[in-house]
Design goal:
- The protein is an all-alpha fold.
- It has helices at 2-25, 41-67, 73-81, 87-111, 113-116.
- The longest helix has 27 residues, at 41-67.
- It is elongated.
- The mean pLDDT is 90.
């Protein structure tokens, strides 16, 4: 039981981190100063949508059998309310998902430190 829970919440942490890294990374395209690398709005919307969609689909296929691949604290909360996930696990799932998102944000903060400072 404890080993299974640990594996599941680690998977949620990794899955949420990957979703934030790949999904938010798709929003960082183009260059504001060079016209040759500018994307129009439609291209940006398509790129971002495909990145998020393909990432979620890939994570669901690769991690879904381990934890259900919620990768979103709101989904974990909804599953707890619907009694599809035990309440004793909901907080742990949500905590690991939030921590995964924060860690991915910190990776971006460190990677882009020179850009913003």
């Amino acid at each position: 039981e404890m080993g299974t829970l640990l594996r599941a919440v680690t998977t949620e942490f990794v899955g949420t981190s990957l979703l934030v890294l790949v999904g938010c990374g798709s929003c960082m395209g183009g260059d504001q100063t060079e016209d040759s690398v500018q994307f129009d709005d439609q291209a940006n919307i398509v790129r971002i949508s495909l990145c998020f969609g393909i990432t979620v689909a890939t994570l669901a296929q690769t991690l879904g059998h381990v934890s259900g691949c919620n990768i979103n604290p709101a989904v974990s909360l909804a599953l707890g309310i619907a009694k599809k996930l035990e309440w004793k696990d909901v907080g742990i799932y949500m905590g690991c998902q939030i921590a995964g998102g924060i860690c991915a944000g910190l990776v971006y903060g460190l990677a882009l430190w020179d850009v913003f400072n």
